[in-house]
Amino acid sequence: MSDLQSQDYVRRSASTMTPPSARSHEEQVAKLIDVSRCIGCKACQTACMEWNDLRPEIGHFEGTYQNPADLGPSVWTLMKFAEYENEQGNLEWLIRKDGCMHCEDPGCLKACPAPGAIVQYANGIVDFISDKCIGCGYCVKGCPFDIPRISKTDHKSYKCTLCSDRVTVGLEPACVKACPTGAIMFGSKADMTHQAEERIIDLKSRGFEKAGLYDPAEVGGTHVMYVLHHADKPSLYSGLPDKPQISPMVTVWKGIVKPLAMVGVAMAALAGLFHWVAEGPNEVTEADEAEGERVLRESETEKSS
Amino acid sequence: MTNTWQDIKNANVVIVMGGNAAEAHPCGFKWVIEAKIENGAKLVVVDPRFTRTASVADYYAPIRPGTDIAFLSGVMRYLLEKDAIQHEYVRAYTNASLIVKDGFTFTDGLFSGYNEDTQTYDRSSWDYELDKDGFAKADDTWQDPRCVINLLKQHVSRYTPEMVSRICGTPQDKFLHVCELIASTAAPDKAMTSLFALGWTQHSVGAQNIRSMAMVQLLLGNIGVAGGGMNALRGHSNIQGLTDVGLLSNQMPGYMNLPTDKETDFDVYMSTRQFKPLRPGQISYYQNTRKLFVSFMKALYGDAATQESNWAYDWLPKLDIPLYDIIKAFEMMNNGQMTGYICQGFNPLQAFPDRGKIRRGLSKLKFLVTMDPLDTETSRFWQDFGPQNPANSAEIQTEVFQLPVTCFAEENGSLVNSARWLQWHWKAADGPGKSMSDIWIMSGIFHRLRELYRKEGGAFPDPLLNLTWKYTDPISPDPEELAKEMNGRALADLTDPASGAVTKAGTLLDGFGQLRDDGTTSSGCWIFSGCFTEKGNQMARRDATDPREQGIAPNWAWAWPANRRILYNRASADPSGKPWNPAKPVISWNGTRWVGIDVPDYTPTLDPSKGVSPFIMNDEGLGRLFARKLMAEGPFPEHYEPLESPVENLLHPKVKNNPAARVFPGDRAAFGSPDKFPYVATTYRLTEHFHYWTKHGLMNAILQPEEFIEIGEVLAKEKGIEQGGWVKVTSKRGVVVCKAYVTKRIKPLSVDGKPTHVIGVPIHWGFTGQARKGYGANTLTPSVGDANTQTPEFKAFLVNVEKTSAPVAA
Amino acid sequence: MALTRREFIKLTGLGLAASSLGMLGFGASGVAQAAAVRPFKLSRATETRNTCTYCSVACGILIYSMGDGAKNARSNIIHIEGDPDHPVNRGTLCPKGSALLDVVHAPTRLKVPRYRPPGGTEFKDVSWDFALDRIARLMKDDRDKNFIAKNAAGTTVNRWTSVGMLAASASSSETSYLTWKVVRSLGMVVFDNQARV
Questions:
Q1: Of B136, B230, B542, C62, which has the fewest Cβ atoms less than 10 A away?
Q2: Residue B333 belongs to a domain with what CATH number?
Q3: Which residue has the higher pLDDT, C66 or B779?
Q4: Is A69 on the interface with B (CB under 8 A)?
Q5: Window 443-462 of B, Cβ < 8 Å to C
């Protein structure tokens, strides 16, 4: 099915050739999350679950309002709460909606060995094409924001799609529409950047001198951006990376390992298919994962040594 | 709400105190964010906890639960001392100048007229000095020491910043900073809006909490203007409607009261209701009460309500006590005075205080009927669910009927929102299984009872047998027909005395202005008159046009009264009719009539030079800084400690609590003392849940799965309580075992020099639904209510907390 | 006065001219094709306007149901989202409103009248006639026994205090009006609602 959309791809995982940009005339989109007007209500999280038919397990109370405890294959976005006492001794409750940042230079896509399993559309959305995913987990390692999660049910990787189905028909993503305070906005990246500037001026007038836009250049900018009151310290917001880096592994992968691994992965994928038919998915994909882990560990060790 | 949700965007200061708007009303709260961004507004939050509202506030100040009157009286003292009031408004539009009777006093915590035996006041001295014509005396120079403004100054003089801080635990500098922000809106073109909810009502002094802020708003000239007002953010989708339609023990539709035993006949009843104006030339709307009452009785009893029968006045039940509220009902149940109880969409086992008492009360009933879309705890009170609901079914003799009801998505009808908008909604699907609508069920009960009385006779069946029931489908009346009945009709041809226009018999009325007291009109709820006219269903209107973009949207749905969106809007203009704030006018006088974006709350052609005061629902036409006889515990608010409190009353140790609070002896015996229960607890909603309903839905169960309390780091450390660890919370009435959220958001408060710890208790968990089983906050709460409304004191009571180990089953 | 939705919506705080969403997606000609990847689930659903059942902001909602109303198929609600035309919520919904679907379809929605006899340990399913007949009988027996026509002073008071009712805060005003009529015509005074909680 995904071939139908291929005209819109500008990047495609595990492909050596650049896709023809026959349909790359669309404007770049962005979701802007203004943390300073977010009330942490989780409407975005709910709308995401509702629209995408996701229902993770009912968890426990674990000493925070953050529920579920972590992102997951059925948790594509998650409110994270941090109680922070500032230099003046005043409490700030820094609440951040976490989820895929839709990097302009997506680490997941670069790391992905399965051809066409991760694509980037001309508008900037990075999407996972599940039927091509082999569940190897490289995208998890490749992501500088620790976003994708592998399902234990179908052994495929999942994350926010930026509601590509809604955006396709001219609607805003579900989280954007739901957000009661307009803390999540959606539009062209240029408009959102301009909007952020206005918000930053207002925040500075209210005493947040370091207010700023989070659109990290390290990943070529992102299609999900934050307005932060403390843009000098993104990590205050439940560990938003100060300087997101695509894992060095990905560089290694691209340079040396990839040509070799491509063969290996292709074999593994084929083998996986046969095993699936014969024995069901679990065993094989776990083996896949283990193999993926091993390759990753080795490449990381190589780099750091 | 006096104003609309969108109107909040016009505010310069938004104060959230006595509520948590961002969490309880997120989509309304967007207009606070809008005010901040588009109007440069400052958001001020005063709350015992640093809430999600506080997380986006410009300024936050902590306060001890149950001390809001002290705080706000301190604000009034500040405003009066700094002369930060809107003088012209206060002089022209409030009762500041009126002179109070000589007998009125306030000494050592008590107002004049207190009767210790009955714990009530004789309120006769709480009124104005009248002249020989029956008008209230006034001193416009404010020289007379007995005029309201001087009595008020004297009354609040005790609430110095130091005293406020000692009582409330709010640091003085924070209190004063809040005062400064509030005072900034005394300028005629500046407005503050007050957003509050059950954080103010659920106290033994709840109504006075709200009065205190209403007085602040009057002093600042913030009532009636765009971006101002007293905005009660109501909690349920149609709780405004149920209140409007009078589903309360002492109410009739449209805020008319049921008669009491003392009102032995119709004339006596009417004699105290058609208020004569208390100022020369004043309009007093309630002079029309007879028209409203008679038209209502015509709607109820049709041809059986006649002049000769006093419009069937005697068919209305009369009350021997002020209220048969829920606390009273469960007291009666526990005393064996009740046989049956019907819970329609209401889950008292979760919702009312002292859960043990609720369970014991239900166990003594002969029968219980629940009507609900969901499997409520109340309907299963008799079943053993372990520690969360211990029960010995075999011993409980109550017959229980659990009736399945359709929900909002499965019906047509209207709901009244917090801003008094009546909005129509449409059915999207049938209900599941054999579920039926409330209308069908209530009709079914009615028809069966009527049939039984027709066949068997019995106790006074006349009202039942004569009740109007002229619906096309009597088994399941169409909501549109019911809406039309509330709107009202002409019962004979009516000729307008002014224009001569004739309204034909049978025609739907255009508004309550057409109601008559001679039986020629009917209206089931006069304040809704105009909602469904010959032009169609006004509640279904969907034109969102908003003149001046000021948040009025006059053609969207329909608002009571008379489609007016901002109450008291005459006060948005100065005495000569010019808007106080020319940038945000609501109505103004154009030389011949009142014009503007809203329906005037005033006679549309009344020249301002006539000097008719703007608050036409009050008999003196003025906003009341002095409440006269209307409040149970005094015409000025006074700080009284909650019934369970860790400290003495610093102002008057002999009168610690609300002297007019109604406390049943058994409930008083169940109050705890601070030596055993040293911590102040307060209950609340979380944004992820709605009461006890959403735990039945999977998504909300995922978002907040399990019962917990919130506790500050200092106390947690003292008690060895770990983040996410198990705790046992105890009050004199019960025990809750749940998890702890150790947080920086609750800090110990210094109350009269002593550290006071606050424990937060979210309310949402029970033993049915998909979320994890919980004990329910009402296991802990005391059974005592506000002295006027009997709203339970959920927001300030005493508990102890200890570390415990995980329950075996968990 | 008719307004198009786009004329009406001014996104909160979005003071600048925003690009229309259509331009941000996949281009007009690509819509049909792109839709094939993640099918847009509402394309054939029926839209019904309603009001959120929770708090008193009274957000406008759009309820989407499958089925076109044909006699042979029962419609089923599949999705609920905010009504963008509504002047208060303008399409937004909170975490409760966004999750309405799961309460409509809660496994604990009641589907059949149930009855628990005195001392019983279980509910049993009963017919509506059984339930309503029995309720009416119980009510009448008690009313006939405990109705107070006159007080000690001889004043006609016509009240009934031994059976009470709590009315539903999420029911419509029309329901509540009908409920008022029935309750008061019986003389019931122990009557209240959720205004306080």
A1: B542
A2: 3.40.50.740
A3: B779
A4: no
A5: 443-446, 448-449, 452-453, 456, 458-460
Q: How far is B140 from chain C (nearest CA, A)?
A: 39
Q: Which tokens hold the place of C56?
A: 């008193």
**Cβ of B485 and C177 within 8 Å?**
yes
DSSP helix/strand/coil, C164: strand
- Would you say residue B470 lies in a domain? no
Instruction: Identify whether residues B207 and B335 lie together within a single domain.
Output: no
Token pair of B721 as six digits: 């309580």
Report the neighbours of A using a cutoff of 3 or more CB pairs below 8 angstroms: B, C
Answer yes or no: do C91 and C127 share one domain.
no
Please determine, for residue A265, whether its predicted confidence score (pLDDT) is greater than 80.
Answer: no
pLDDT at C70: 84
Q: Residues of C at the A interface (Cβ-Cβ below 8 Å)?
A: 11-27, 30-31, 33-41, 79-82, 84, 89, 91-95, 97-99, 101-102
Query: What mean pLDDT is predicted for residues B650-670?
Result: 98
**Segment holding A297, helix H or strand E:** helix A281-304
Are residues C94 and C47 part of one domain?
yes
What is the residue range of C169's domain? 147-197
Does residue C73 belong to the interface with chain B, where contact is any CB pair within 8 Å? no
CATH no. for residue C60?
A: 3.30.200.210
Say yes or no for a CB contact (<8 Å) between A187 and C27: no
Asked if residue A76 and residue A47 are part of one domain, the reply reads: yes
> Under 8 Å CB-to-CB from A52, ≥6 apart: which residues?
A76, A161, A163, A174
A95 at B interface, C-beta within 8 A: yes
User: What integer is the mean pLDDT of B426-448?
Assistant: 97
Answer whether B690 sits within 8 Å of C189, measured CB to CB: no
What pLDDT, in 10s, does the model give residues B442-486? 999 999 999 999 999 999 999 999 999 999 999 999 999 999 999
Q: Which pLDDT band holds residue A8 (cuts at 50, 70, 90)?
A: confident
Q: Do A67 and B707 touch (CB under 8 A)?
A: no
Overall domain count for chain B = 3
Q: Assess whether A300 and A181 both reside in one domain.
A: no
End-to-end CA, chain A: 43
Q: Diameter of chain A by CA atoms?
A: 65
CB neighbour burial string for B218-252, b if at least 16 within 10 angstroms, e if fewer:
bbbbbbbbbbbbbbbbbbbbbbbbbbbbbbbbbbb
> Alpha-carbon distance C40 to A174, whole Å?
12
Question: Residue B749's domain spans which residues?
Answer: 665-803
Amino acid in the structure at residue B581: N
Q: How far apart are CA A293 and CA B383, in angstroms?
A: 52
Q: Which of B436, B453, B470 is the last residue of a domain?
A: B453
Structurally, chain A folds into a number of domains equal to: 2
Residue A204, Cα to own-chain centre: how many angstroms?
Answer: 29
pLDDT above 60: residue C83: yes
Specify the pTM. 0.93
Residue A52 touches chain C, beta carbons under 8 Å: no
